[in-house]
TrEMBL record:
Gene Ontology MF terms in the entry: DNA-directed DNA polymerase activity
Primary enzyme class: transferase
Domain of life: Bacteria
Residue ranges annotated for the DNA polymerase III delta N-terminal domain, each copy included: 20-136
Protein name, as recorded: DNA polymerase III subunit delta
Domain DNA polymerase III delta subunit-like C-terminal residues, every copy: 208-320
UniProt entry keywords in alphabetical sequence: DNA replication, DNA-directed DNA polymerase, Nucleotidyltransferase, Transferase
InterPro entries per the UniProt record, alphabetical: DNA_pol3_clamp-load_cplx_C, DNA_pol3_delta-like_C, DNA_pol3_delta_N, DNA_polIII_delta, P-loop_NTPase
E.C. number: 2.7.7.7
Cleaved signal peptide residues: none
Species, as recorded: Christensenella tenuis
Gene3D superfamilies: 1.10.8.60, 1.20.272.10, P-loop containing nucleotide triphosphate hydrolases
Catalysis performed (reactions): DNA(n) + a 2'-deoxyribonucleoside 5'-triphosphate = DNA(n+1) + diphosphate
Length: 338
């Protein structure tokens, strides 16, 4: 279930003894956990709230679970920052908790790092008897909708288009999105505009790759050169820039192939997303950008980028001096062979 469903149930008085919060989005997990803890309303937390870390000794947790709440409605026991239920974790640890003499008003809440293995007995037990809250990465439209609502809660308005821009800027990272919204809420009044985002929000590396691509395609080589220089001066691992640029061309190659095959637009978008694992935003962008290149031109660009990646890792070339000339060759001389 989603965190909002669990909160609704808890506020309605339907509180389960076992709550498991897990998934691939750590920011969502932490947000859900703090909201759940607030909704559980632990009275006298210094006596009725026990927190264990990582891989506690099971019987220590059981003893805490079996303790009656003191001058409060319920006792909550938390295991956080744990990977006990991950696919890589060996063994099962469900039996002690399932067999514990658990008072009806007590709650065990496990805050898990990453996804859990749904084949494990305890996960199955929580899914059946308790609340299993999954906090996986949002899809693009979900994240944009979240940004619109989060801005609204801060007394600000943001269009769906600008919300999508902010999501892309943060590369889909919920933690970064939240930080950027906090920053924008301090400097913006009324609306969050595209200019506000460009001026105040921190640009992800992926966003800057998109911008360099746009500048090169648009013929703004001087501006692209300046941005590349700033990025490579700041980045301790410029190979990451090359990887993202290659991914950009891979998405365009899939888009170009589908377009040449005369697939309908929505089918192309879906195919790009499935083939490259990218967001809808990036897939639509790839479809638009691929129109400026032929399939052989995109393949040539990928070959050039792959060779540069290999040479850079071997120490044969330096990206700080050789990357820009390569991009000029790719963008300005796309028909050149070799």
């Amino acid at each position: 279930m989603k965190a909002r469903e669990a909160l609704k149930q808890i506020k309605g008085g339907d509180i389960k003894n076992f709550i498991l919060v897990a998934g691939e989005d750590d920011a969502q997990i932490q947000q859900a956990f703090h909201a759940l803890l607030a909704a559980l309303n632990v009275q006298m937390p210094e006596l009725n709230l026990s927190v264990f870390e990582e891989r506690p000794e099971p019987m220590a947790v059981v003893r805490s679970l079996e303790t009656l709440p003191f001058m409060g409605e319920r006792r909550v026991v938390v295991i956080k920052n744990t990977d006990l239920l991950s696919p890589a974790a060996s063994g099962e640890f469900s039996a002690p908790f399932e067999k514990a003499n658990l008072p009806a008003q007590n709650v065990l809440c496990i805050v898990h790092q990453g996804k859990v293995d749904k084949r494990k007995a305890f996960v199955k037990y929580v899914m059946k008897k308790g609340m299993f809250i999954e906090c996986n990465a949002m899809k693009e439209n979900e994240l944009a909708a979240y940004i619109v609502q989060a801005a609204k809660r801060r007394g600000l308005l943001i269009s769906v288009k600008n919300a999508q821009t902010l999501a892309a800027l943060a590369d889909g990272d919920m933690g970064i999105v939240q930080n950027e919204l906090e920053k924008l809420s301090c400097v913006c009044r009324g609306d969050i505009t595209a200019d506000d985002i460009e001026k105040y929000a921190v640009k992800s590396l992926q966003y800057n790759v998109y911008k360099i691509h746009d500048l090169m395609v648009g013929g703004y080589a001087k501006e692209a050169h300046a941005l590349i220089g700033r990025l490579l001066a700041e980045d301790n691992n410029p190979i990451g820039f090359l990887t993202l640029l290659s991914n950009n061309f891979r998405q365009m190659l899939v888009a170009r192939a589908c377009r040449d095959a005369r697939f309908p637009e929505q089918k192309i978008i879906s195919h790009i997303m499935k083939a490259t694992g990218t967001w809808e935003f990036a897939a639509r962008r790839a479809l638009t950008q691929c129109k400026q290149f032929t399939a052989p031109q995109i393949r040539r660009a990928l070959e050039k980028l792959a060779q540069m990646d290999f040479d850079a890792k071997q120490g044969v070339i330096s990206l700080k001096t050789d990357l820009y000339p390569l991009l000029v060759d790719i963008y300005m001389n796309p028909n050149k062979k070799g």
